[in-house]
Amino acid sequence: MSLIKGTLTLSKYRVIGSLPDNFRDFFDKQIKLFAFRELSIGESEKSAGWTSLENVLDTDFEYANYLLADYLIFSLRIDRKIISSSLLKLKILEAERKFIAEKGKDKIYREERAEIKERVYLSLLKQTPPIPSFYEICWNVSQGWLLFGSLSEKAREDFEDLFKRTFKLTLQRFIPWDTKHMDSQTAERILSVNSSNFSSSGT
Asked: Whole-angstrom distance between the N-terminal and C-terminal Cα of the chain?
């Protein structure tokens, strides 16, 4: 894991919202409630949940191994089943040809074609092994910031959604020059520079 060893690729967030008084107990309950669960052999395309940072197979967090001083460190695991569009197209054509031969028809109606497509897709989905991805998280609770181990837009959207559902808190992507989160003196200087630049460009 790159938070422990290796190169880091990170997105930084501000954590927006009030923490409950018993936040440690709340966190322990919620991270276990939304821990990663394996995809069933059914029809699901994606499964996402939290795991231990040190051992991605550990979803019990039995010894609160996510605690490190004032930091919470854990991982997001996302398993996806990806079906090749060309494979899907080929299997649909094969299924349609078989359907015509068995039914003795000259054509397939729209409803029949849609039914065949759905059946083939679900069949392939059940046969396709999921591809796992792991993303590291480091959350400084007292200072209200968090690091997420990816720059991928899709991964960040999945993470932001699961984080909000799990902890009832909102993530705001970090903007270094956001004056709302600076000390008043620095914010005033930046605002005055921006104001003077705007005035100069207008003359």
From this structure: 54
